From TrEMBL:
Keywords: ATP-binding, Nucleotide-binding, Transport. CDD domains: ABC_MJ0796_LolCDE_FtsE. It comes from the Bacteria. Residues 5-244 form the ABC transporter domain. GO terms for molecular function: ATP binding. Belongs to the ABC transporter superfamily. This is ABC transporter ATP-binding protein. InterPro entries: AAA+_ATPase (IPR003593), ABC_transporter-like_ATP-bd (IPR003439), MacB-like_ATP-bd (IPR017911).
Length: 254
């Protein structure tokens, strides 16, 4: 399997002398092409801090991050922002769509910013909107969509640059259970059909059960790892069992 993302001794500290708090504590991680990786853990465990460093939004205090073997720590801010635009897709809990733009323009935005040929943009928007069941929504504006539709627009936008990795931070957090299931099925399909690598932070064991592998983070460290080698329902039960066995501080995850 091809290694897409690798970290070595990844650390993030907040504060200054005498008052240092370690949010992510020496994490070593390998993520392979086509993985659907879930990151779980109690509130304050360091999940978002880890995700922000992996997705290049934030820089580590120490340690290394390699994308397809390339150390991104040496990149200057401008180079890093171009790298991010071309290699990383984002899906946030609150969608982050631009209200003044149509669905079509929201999906196309990352390519429009990269000055890609308009025919190529149209073709890609068409293909992805079909995949996400949004063909009839392209002329609408975000306020005219349901939460589930908005999140599928965000997913299409995240995929349009064919990124190495798509990061999703609590993508089902603002959705009802039916929309959550639909979105997670889309994630599984995009993972299978496009071989997209997805890294998703979630509190929700049901959402996590769609992943192929789960890391549970606690106090900034990897506390447990789970690989899916059974049906989704059986995996869901195993996740619940693990979280229950962890006891204090993880009740909120269940
Ligand atoms: N900018 C910051 N300055 C200081 N401390 C921070 C900062 N950002 C995060 N922290 C602390 O780092 C720890 C990890 O935060 P993080 O947001 O990564 O946790 P999380 O696992 O994503 O939590 P949640 O599930 O509640 O979103 C927390 O104790 C938090 O208070």
């Amino acid at each position: 399997m091809d290694l897409v993302l690798e970290t070595k001794n990844l650390k993030k500290e907040y504060g200054s002398k005498g008052m240092v708090f370690t949010a992510v504590d020496n994490i070593d991680l390998n993520v392979y092409k086509g993985e659907f990786l879930g990151i779980m853990g109690p509130s304050g465990a360091g999940k978002t801090t880890l995700l922000n460093m992996l997705s290049t939004i934030d820089r580590p205090t120490s340690g290394e991050i390699y994308y397809e073997g390339k150390n991104i720590g040496h990149m200057k801010n401008r180079e890093l922002s171009i790298f991010r635009r071309n290699n990383v897709g984002f899906i946030f809990q609150d969608f982050n769509l631009l209200d003044s733009m149509s669905v079509e323009d929201n999906i196309a935005l990352p390519l429009a910013l990269s000055k890609v040929d308009s025919k190529e943009i149209k073709d890609k928007v068409k293909r992805l909107s079909k995949f996400f069941g949004l063909d009839d929504q392209l002329r609408k504006y975000p306020y005219q969509l349901s939460g589930g539709q908005k999140q599928r627009v965000a997913a299409a936008r995240a995929l349009i640059t064919s990124p190495s990795v798509v990061f999703a931070d609590e993508p089902t957090g603002a959705l009802d259970s039916k929309s959550s299931s639909e979105l997670l099925q889309c994630f599984s399909r995009m993972n299978q059909e496009f071989n997209t690598t997805v890294i998703m932070v979630t509190h929700d064991a049901f959402a996590a059960s769609y992943c192929k592998r789960i890391l549970v983070i606690k106090d900034g460290k990897i506390h447990a790892k789970l690989d899916k080698d059974e049906t989704r329902k059986e995996f869901f039960k195993r996740i619940l069992d693990l979280l229950a066995s962890m006891g204090g501080g993880v009740d909120e995850l269940i």
